[in-house]
Design brief:
228 residues, mainly alpha, disordered N terminus, disulfide bond, transmembrane
């Protein structure tokens, strides 16, 4: 999958005012390089300015992460709405880019979901909607990634989602996933809350350890210089 193609397509379907997500990766990479350079050179050369810069910069990042976590908890409904908006825009652009299409298929297969909140969200796509004016063979269907998998099948049936939404809801549950990707993602978070929390706590402890280590080294260097 070509990451550049995915990112360029994502920038066109998100409400980011033309912001290209590639710049986000460049900024994050630049910050990591500067932070690592300051910490490494500061420790090797016993440069208190670089060590203080490293400590303060790391402290700012820690504070921003903490703030983002609190805001994410307070505005979780807004985040859910933005995720719903993002997925639905992806659904509209499903056939516009092969990389984005592969990304959506992977997501739906991995989470065992279909659409943002259900299979009917695929009505937003011009090829899958159920309107009478839609002459597509995929009318009232879903992508193959929404289909429940048969372990006995070695070859993927890319037509398994044809006419799936014309069936009664009980029959739909046999052939396709009827749960949306947003509820499935929430369920995954709840099921793996301990692991997710452990990862964030581990990252926070590493950052605090780095700050303390840098400050301790600065104190030692200044104490040695004061004794000269």
């Amino acid at each position: 999958m070509k990451i550049q193609g995915v990112l360029s397509n994502i920038s066109s379907i998100t409400d980011l005012g033309g912001f290209d997500p590639v710049w986000l990766f460049l900024v994050v990479g630049g910050v990591m390089f500067i932070l690592g350079f300051a910490g490494c050179i500061g420790a090797l050369r016993e440069n208190t300015f670089l060590l203080k810069f490293f400590s303060v910069f790391l402290g700012i990042i820690f504070f921003l992460e903490l703030t983002a976590g609190v805001l994410a908890f307070v505005f979780k409904d807004w985040i859910k709405d933005q995720l719903y908006f993002f997925i639905n825009n992806n659904i509209r652009a499903y056939r516009d880019d092969i990389d984005l299409q592969n990304l959506i298929d992977f997501t739906q297969e991995y989470w065992q979901c279909c659409g943002a909140f259900g299979a009917d969200d695929w009505n937003l796509n011009i090829y899958f909607n159920c309107t009478d004016s839609n002459a597509s063979r995929e009318r009232c269907g879903v992508p193959f990634s929404c289909c429940t998998k048969d372990p006995a099948e070695d070859v993927i049936n890319t037509q398994c989602g044809y006419d799936a939404r014309q069936k009664p809801e009980v029959d739909q549950q046999i052939v396709i996933y009827t749960k949306g990707c947003v509820p499935q993602f929430e369920k995954w978070l709840q099921d793996n809350l301990t692991i997710v929390a452990g990862i964030f706590i581990g990252i926070a402890l590493l950052q605090i350890f780095g700050i303390c280590l840098a400050q301790n080294l600065v104190s030692d260097i200044e104490a040695v210089r004061a004794s000269w």
